[in-house]
UniProtKB/TrEMBL annotation:
<feature type="domain" description="THUMP-like">
    <location>
        <begin position="312"/>
        <end position="384"/>
    </location>
</feature>
<keyword id="KW-0489">Methyltransferase</keyword>
<feature type="domain" description="Methyltransferase type 11">
    <location>
        <begin position="103"/>
        <end position="162"/>
    </location>
</feature>
<keyword id="KW-0808">Transferase</keyword>
<dbReference type="GO" id="GO:0032259">
    <property type="term" value="P:methylation"/>
</dbReference>
<dbReference type="Pfam" id="PF08241">
    <property type="entry name" value="Methyltransf_11"/>
</dbReference>
<dbReference type="InterPro" id="IPR041497">
    <property type="entry name" value="Thump-like"/>
</dbReference>
<dbReference type="InterPro" id="IPR029063">
    <property type="entry name" value="SAM-dependent_MTases_sf"/>
</dbReference>
<protein>
    <submittedName>
        <fullName>Methyltransferase</fullName>
    </submittedName>
</protein>
<dbReference type="Pfam" id="PF18096">
    <property type="entry name" value="Thump_like"/>
</dbReference>
<dbReference type="GO" id="GO:0008757">
    <property type="term" value="F:S-adenosylmethionine-dependent methyltransferase activity"/>
</dbReference>
<dbReference type="InterPro" id="IPR013216">
    <property type="entry name" value="Methyltransf_11"/>
</dbReference>
């Protein structure tokens, strides 16, 4: 799509093309294109409408109930923040007293709309003209300009949000110095604006963060989706894990420096959520449940009672075996296990190869956790404890 096609999609002819494309959603691409053309829709408008409808079909997590109305680009959708994460962040900014915020590199406007919806005066700056035009449509309560975020006059705002592009030429980039806007400018923002929030890759090298910031790791239904640095007065704890389960957020905070006790395995083992692990809050999580580690470097938490918590998945240990393929295969055969969930921490084994080598058959399900203690590699056969609530 280009700017001209975006404009045409908003004319009555374009709206009709989008409606038609919507009716054909899910059907064969070529057949849908010829059906649109047979109804008099010019080929390039038909293509733009079909692409838009296909993107909208994948946009529910990022744009919620508005997924069927927003204007999208493929690259913009991939980079957009999920609606529940954006909404929660915006509410926290509002509660902290932010009144005017600049979203510096606002993409399609997922964060920007959430900020504007709280009543904070919202400005979006986006370098790419088509993306900026989409953001202006997607966030009608914000002021969007197309340009370089580094030129924005920060004296107009008391808060900034920056989610730098971690792609270049359609490829992911991993080094912060390759981000856009450039990282040295991004990390200087907290010195210039009181309320600064930076969205980061979950694997960011924590040594690169602005000093004194709070590092928040966010997961949605078990997937770690982002990290955010909350700077200045917005930082209220060194580390925070925000874990969304079925749309409900749960928060765990701490210093990230606590160490957990180490002792032999117990009757239950809990696999902490990735946000808890990456926020270095495993010891804090273990402490709230009287848990411990069996190896100080491995984030499986052991306990003698089940840990029922949104911050991890708990398993009742059925059998604990020193790892041996032959023995594991025999045990699974005896237990008639045909469906096996395999998790691992601290094990170099190739899970899919192992699954093939186990030659599973039988009516029963089971979970297998591969790990090691200081002594040896371990295989834990286990049954999931039902999640809370
Ligand atoms: C990761 S995306 C932002 C996604 C956005 N938070 C959302 O949820 O939709 C980063 C955006 O920054 C834009 N960008 C990169 N460098 C920029 C610059 N110097 N000035 C303005 N925008 C820039 C890119 O075009 C891209 O759309």
């Amino acid at each position: 799509m280009d700017l001209d096609q975006l404009a045409r999609l908003r004319t009555p002819e374009g709206v009709a093309a989008l409606d038609l494309a919507g009716e054909l959603a899910g059907s064969d691409e070529l057949a849908a294109a010829s059906a649109l053309r047979a109804r008099g829709v010019p080929p390039d408008l038909a293509a733009a409408a079909l692409t838009q409808i296909a993107l909208r079909g994948r946009a529910a997590a990022k744009f919620g109930a508005d997924a069927g109305r927003v204007f999208l680009t493929r690259a913009g959708l991939e980079q957009a923040t999920r609606e529940i994460v954006a909404t929660r962040r915006a509410a926290r900014l509002r509660a902290a007293g932010s009144t005017a915020l600049a979203d510096l590199g606002c993409g399609l406007g997922s964060d920007l709309r959430a900020v504007a919806a709280t009543g904070i005066r919202a400005y979006g700056v986006e370098a790419d003209p088509l993306t900026a035009a989409c953001a202006a449509l997607n966030a009608p309560d914000a002021t969007v300009t197309c340009g370089d975020a580094q030129e924005f006059d920060l004296s107009q705002v008391d808060a900034v949000f920056c989610d730098p592009a971690r792609r270049s030429g359609g490829r992911r980039v991993f080094r912060p110095e390759d981000y856009s806007p450039p990282w040295d400018w991004v990390v200087s923002l907290p010195q210039r604006v009181p309320h600064t929030v930076l969205k980061l890759a979950p694997g960011i090298d924590q040594a690169l963060l602005p000093p004194g910031c709070e590092l928040e790791l966010v997961s949605v239904d078990g997937d770690v989706v982002e990290a955010a640095a909350w700077c200045g007065p917005l930082a209220t704890t060194p580390r925070r894990a925000t874990v969304f389960r079925d749309g409900v957020p749960h928060e765990l905070t701490g210093t990230g420096e606590q160490t957990a006790p180490v002792a032999p395995p117990g009757r239950y083992v809990t696999d902490p959520d990735g946000a808890v692990v990456r926020a270095h809050l495993v010891a804090e999580f273990a402490a709230t449940h009287g848990g411990w580690l069996a190896d100080s470097h491995i984030a499986y938490i052991w306990s003698d009672t089940p840990i029922v918590s949104p911050f991890g998945r708990c398993f009742a240990v059925d059998e604990l075996l020193p790892f041996s393929l032959k023995r594991l295969r025999a045990t699974l055969r005896d237990r008639q296990v045909g469906r096996l969930e395999i998790l691992k921490r601290g094990s170099a084994l190739d899970v899919e190869q192992l699954r093939r080598d186990l030659r599973l058959s039988g009516p029963h399900p089971a979970s297998l956790l591969l790990t090691r203690t200081a002594a040896a590699p371990l295989a834990i056969l286990a049954t999931p404890v039902p999640p809370p609530g």
